[in-house]
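User: I'm designing a mutation panel for Glyoxalase and want to avoid disrupting the core. Could you give me a predicted structure to guide residue selection? Please restate the sequence first so the numbering is unambiguous.

Assistant: Good idea. Sequence first, for numbering, then the predicted structure tokens:
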Amino acid sequence: MKIKLTTLHVDDQEKALRFYTDVLGFVKKADFSNGPYRWLTVVSPEEPDGTELQLALNDNPAARTYQQAMFQQGQPAAMFYTDHIQADHERIKARGAEFTMPPTEVTGSTIAMLNDTCGNLIQLAQISWQG
């Protein structure tokens, strides 16, 4: 088995699409509507057939409450791995991203945290150990 799709709830799909493509550098994979429902996914340009990230409209009250609580606690909604965290930090910051934590060394990795402007904190990680 493999993971093909994971979902991230966002408060505005169009704003999320701009952020995840223009700022983070992902590419749009799927975008279609059925009535008021919009199916929207992005992928890494490094793995265009890899795991898709669904940017789902957060119109479910239970999911919205969970999303807001996680954000208030400073917990990331997703983690993206990088081989070059310092370079990615500078590139993403230059594109207007607000980092809540710059690249910081922790046990076995270097992590950074940013606000996706759509209700989520996103963690970037560069692993320095092999498991």
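For picking mutation sites, this is relevant: The beta strands are 5-10, 27-34, 37-43, 52-57, 78-81, 98-106, 109-115, 121-127. DSSP finds three helices and eight strands in the chain.
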